[in-house]
């Protein structure tokens, strides 16, 4: 019989192989191999300190891995001569804290990188910002200052800001965990819309409901390792990894 490897249905947008990272003697990521397929929503779950944020930071080159490779499409981001700024512009990142500029209007927060990094003209950038703000339900808020918005609205501005750069991949690190509970759902709804629209996303989240409904696959990280990766059904209904079962019993 010929052994044939079945090709994945869709190509990998992001591919990580053998990624390791230590801080001093503390190993935080151990030999992680994982991919995010084009159009896929991959949720990353796991206990505090398991390395989820560090993995996302490595993907966005905010941290330098000690070993392993990261590929964004055909570009090797970890190659010695990689153009880090160009690679970063292709990856959108949304953090727990939105880091909007308080002295700038919502619109200017969204257009800043378009005009300064992409060199886009002011009017074209404005149109693009208004389109993105409309997508996150904030078209009417363009002229406000961030302080005049709720936390959930500010986070949606941060998402619009990332989307305006037209990234190939969006990374979310606990985008809702600093929000009051009643504000979480609007941000999750925006993320769900993005997922349905076919955006490629890697989402670190403690929102198990979101992971279950919106993820194509769920990855469970534990002690710096990728312990499980599977469909939400199998992760949540038929978890056979003892640490995963224990983790789920604490968070569900
Ligand atoms: N800059 C740093 N210097 C030293 N240690 C760090 C640094 N950043 C993270 N760590 C350590 O690396 C480990 C993994 O941290 P990381 O932030 O990736 O975990 P996490 O899975 O995102 O956790 P949480 O769910 O609490 O956000 C932790 O033990 C943390 O203390
Ligand atoms: Mg984290």
TrEMBL record:
Family annotation (CDD domains): ABC_HisP_GlnQ
Boundaries of every ABC transporter domain copy: 14-248
Subcellular location: Cell membrane
Coiled coil (residue ranges): none
Topology with respect to the bilayer: Peripheral membrane protein
Molecular functions (GO terms): ABC-type amino acid transporter activity; ATP binding; ATP hydrolysis activity
Lineage top rank: taxon: Bacteria
Chief localisation class: membrane
SUPFAM superfamilies named in the record: P-loop containing nucleoside triphosphate hydrolases (SSF52540)
Keywords assigned: Amino-acid transport, ATP-binding, Cell membrane, Membrane, Nucleotide-binding, Transport
Family statement: Belongs to the ABC transporter superfamily.
Entry protein name: Amino acid ABC transporter ATP-binding protein
Species of origin: Streptomyces inhibens
């Amino acid at each position: 019989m010929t052994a044939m490897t079945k090709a994945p249905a869709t190509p990998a947008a992001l591919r990580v192989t053998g990624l390791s990272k230590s801080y001093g003697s503390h190993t935080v990521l151990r030999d992680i191999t994982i991919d995010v397929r084009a159009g896929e929503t991959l949720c990353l779950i796991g206990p505090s300190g398991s390395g989820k944020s560090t993995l996302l930071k490595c993907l966005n080159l905010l941290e330098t891995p000690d070993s392993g490779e990261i590929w964004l499409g055909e570009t090797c981001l970890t190659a010695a001569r990689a153009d880090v700024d160009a690679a970063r512009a292709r990856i959108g990142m949304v953090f727990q804290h939105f880091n909007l500029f308080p002295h700038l209007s919502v619109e200017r927060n969204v257009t800043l990188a378009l005009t300064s990094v992409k060199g886009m003209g002011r009017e074209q950038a404005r149109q693009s910002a208004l389109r993105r703000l409309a997508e996150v339900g904030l078209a009417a808020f363009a002229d406000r200052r961030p302080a005049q918005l709720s936390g959930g609205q500010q986070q949606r501005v941060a998402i619009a800001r990332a989307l305006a750069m037209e990234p190939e991949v969006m990374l979310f690190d606990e985008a809702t965990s600093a929000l009051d509970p009643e504000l979480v759902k609007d941000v999750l709804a925006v993320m769900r819309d993005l997922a349905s629209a076919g955006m490629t996303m890697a989402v670190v989240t403690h929102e198990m409901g979101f992971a279950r409904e919106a993820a194509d696959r769920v990855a469970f990280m534990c002690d710096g390792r990728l312990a499980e990766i599977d469909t939400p059904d199998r992760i949540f209904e038929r978890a056979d990894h003892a640490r995963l079962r224990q983790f789920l019993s604490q968070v569900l």
